[in-house]
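Support reply, case 0932

Customer input (verbatim):
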Amino acid sequence: METLPEVPEAPLRPFKLAHQVVSLTGISFDRRTVIGMVELTIVPNNENLRLIRLNAKQLRIYSVVLNDVCQAEFHYFDPFQNICNSEPHSRSMDVFSKCHLNAATITDPDENNGELVIEVPPDGYSLIQEGRGLRIRIEFSAENPKSGMHFVIPATSPDDENGQVSSAHMYTNCYENSSRLWFPCVDSFADPCTWRLEFTVDKNLTAVSCGELVEVIMTPDLRRKTFHYTVSTPVCAPNIALAVGPFEIYVDPHMHEVTHFCLPGMLPLLKNTVRYLHEAFEFFEETLSTRYPFSCYKQVFVDELDTDISAYATMTIASVNLLHSIAIIDQTYVSRTFMSRAVAEQFFGCFITSHHWSDTWLAKGIAEYLCGLYSRKCFGNNEYREWVQSELARVVKYEEQYGGIILDCSQPPAPLPVSSTNPAAAASKQEEIVHYFPIKSLHTLSPKYVEAMRRKAHLVIRMLEHRIGQELLIQVFNKQLALATNAAGTKIGAGLWSQLLISTNIFIKAIFTVTGKNMSVFMDQWVRTGGHAKFSLTSVFNRKRNTIELEIRQDFVNQLGVRKYNGPLLVQLQELDGTFKHTLQIENTLVKSDITCHSKSRRNKKKKIPLCTGEEVDMDLSAMDDSPVLWIRLDPEMILLRDLIIEQPDFQWQYQLRHERDVTAQFQAIQALQKYPTNATRLALTDTIESESCFYKVRCQAAHSLTKVANQMVASWSGPPAMLNIFRKFFGSFSAPHIIKLNNFSNFQLYFLQKAIPVAMAGLRTSHGICPPEVMRFLFDLFKYNENSRNHYTDAYYRAALVEALGETLTPVVSVAMHGTQITTDSLSTDAKLVLDEVTRLLNMEKHLPSYRCMVSVSCLKVIRKLQKFGHLPSLPHIYRSYAEYGIFLDLRLAAMECLVDFVKVDGRSEDLEHLITLLETDPDPAARHGLAQLLIDNPPFTRESRRFVLDKPNLVERLWKTINTLSGDTKLRCDIVDLYYALYGKKRPSCMQAHENQHFYQDLMKENSNSSNSFKKIDKLDRAGSESKERHKPAMVTIKRTATEAFEVGDEIIQLERSEEIQVMDEPINVQSYDSETRINTMDDIPGESQHMSKRVKTELYAEDDNTTMALDVGESTRYESSYDEAKFKADGSVKKKKKKDKKKHKHKHKHKHNKDKDKEKDRERKDKDRKDPQISRLQAREAATPETLSSADSSNSNSNPPLGLN
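Our regenerated output:
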């Protein structure tokens, strides 16, 4: 096979990037500005280079100079400042998606595009010689950047003058390839070069950047100093970063090349957090048989970072929230995993980068895979397998909700063999995966998609591991690293820097070189095609033949995100004589297979059963039927991307839970047993909770499942509430079991169990649907007797779990009298009052002695929200708004925002939603903005299907639409708001927009009619309107103006418009469709037989005039108006009621409507009698007197009434 790397299909850039200098001399914290200069050294591919395209955003460019002598003209254009410029009136996601991709393509460096276009002047033609370097010097500044650079300037008290200096810092936080936000560059993963970096800062600050620190030079005035860094290994611009602040510095005692930086006062936490990081370096170097590719490594912990950690070349910027003391248990797992992943990304992601952005799945997946191997070494195989299972479940959930994830969309998969029975099946399947956002650019992808793509990439690398073996896979990685290390030591002229890049095709060839296996089909199946497999398994035992008859179905292939799988599938049977594996070939949606059992049923004989681990265990076989099969597993090693539905008897699930050693199988059994509320299930779950040999997460999950089983067995349950005796056995005092022991969390298994059991018990319910009194007393005793003074570890997580348990005990108010009455302390139930008292006490205590990461306060806020939702407290948002303000700790802010989002969905008004959108757009903390966006997306205030008229307003559409069209700098937030827009309105044009336009149309109609004369000479206007049918509102205006009788209802008033002229109507039918909506008005010739019947019907359409008034329109007897919006009812706050018409036929008349005149007079007389009884008639007459030409009184309207005219 060829060894040369494949070149992307995108046009080649007419130059190569050799070296770049970045110099920032004016970093001002007061003004939040940066002034600097870059100098790019490029090598032209030909002498005809006339345009140089670079990337630069939100920067002010002052000058461009070539080789220090030639001033060049330049042009700047950012299409993201007005994405839908060509479609200004559209509000649909389909239109936006096309414009969004177009804007990203126009500035995509991989397509030889960019925002900054430099024209080489005629004087500079002589400077361009093929193969010779050309230096481009660009001076620029950035003022108040929206993204890319973040300044953290904490609020200080007036008496603390030095506070701002001591803690203010700034750093770059670029989403994917967004280095263009802070310096001009070629912002591509595929253009590595060497770097020289210079940063001038105040003398009390430290600048941390990529590469080796060469020197620090004081300025002549001794007030500032300049940090000089060099990156001798070629790296790409997206992997360059900077952090400036008054950092405390800690050199790793185990590896002196590693340095850690943190904010003042956090050094003790830093030392504890990073004390095992050197082990990650040693593990990766040993596993990959390759030395760390750079000469140094720096970790900087900063505040308000919108991700937990971001890896750059030789440097990682991490969130300060990852720091923890030695007393913290839970955070240790999280922080150590994140930091090890950042180290893995130094090898794949920073040193070896992607050939094209669509190849980023490789770097992300390999780094995640290596991180998983290290986690398995650190935390054990059970933790690792549970993590893989949860990653797989998340990918499946995302794909079934939004559609399949295509890891590499740069080229379609090879066409599958066409079957003779269904030749179109292979071609049609790929077309089904259509997302509401373009997947062909990183700058248009949903952040949820990017996160799910990283998870899926890791799972695909794991699948490769099972295909070719771990040892050979590591050899493939080693080969790529060896080639890259060799290339990094050469100059650009050698032409080897392309070996620093990896792509899907290069990876396929590397696997073939090492193993001799061609993985092209595998890549087409799992990388270039989206979706996962979904199997359902049923089995029947044939006693005569001693076989198990398996039936594996793929009935879900038409479901979103699911596709048909063809290939091998492993089935593992646990029989009485051991574990047996069988590989089935899956070719159709239904596969039947008869598997001969190796053992015979012997229910009454006791014998040790050999397991797959080699151990032999005693089992009670009395629950078995005639089958010798104890349990069945499908794809036990999680080799496939799949979802499973396995049906087997409850006793088989119980055997699997008790005796299967694989934690993923135990989790499956626990999940399945929730459907079998029997005493045997109860016993199996109880034994699992008590078993110290079980993985702690399995025991915690079993506790939650036992709650659900107990609630289904409430009528037949005997003994104390579930898990009460277990908890007292483990944690109760010897002499008084109801009093808990002093906290001792040295046994981590029991610690996690001690947190989980109270939360699980709080979900128990009596036959009346309330929490048992014994459980309430038990929980309050836990608060009462909690004592942590002699514990080495903090009990913050434990106390937060207890508060969460209090929330789980709550049930909705059942008294009918409570609803609609004012809620007071007297109306609270006893239990609710006790819960509220405890939560209030803890919240007040937290203000003076906050727990780690304010965990207890977070749980308290969620409990208060539950009290509100269940009717125990008035539903008010004020407490959440105060906790959501900038300056509060991030976790607490996000919890308050979560409560606000839920409040808006259940009880909110427009101003509450507007407050959240304002926070989303303007909050200074990017982490809070992104977190709030995710909360709104996951729990939207309304959707297109379930519209809430109180919240679904046109001004919200316009606000969100403007934001996604003009939010140029912050790609992540823009894509977040695109996700929110889709969650609220779907792909099509929002329904409220058409109603809003109709409302304005009728308001304009009233004004026009009030100013028009009684002669109604507007036939020429109808002709003009027909020629202007492309305009948005004309079609409806043409049709309605030809109605004879119109009545507008404003409040209690009815205003009638009557016309006495006879109009000759054109005979041709007219079909008019309004812009971008489904509203149609069709007309047909009169059907004589139906004329009398149709003329008796009068339809009324209601439209919202404003938030407080309504407007009614009586359309003529033969009028039919059809709308695409099917609304349930009309509200006076701006919502719209429209009635669908079954019959679309219209009447056209060339003659006068004399045959209906008598009936029309009767109707007008009835209307006149009704108006006389109306107490508002005096106001009506006063208004009619104001416009005598068009408005008539009730009496005169009767005498001047005219038969209705047919609509054309």
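We compared this against your earlier run and they match. Two observations from our side: The mean pLDDT is 82. DSSP finds 35 helices and 37 strands in the chain. Please reopen the case if you see a mismatch on your end.
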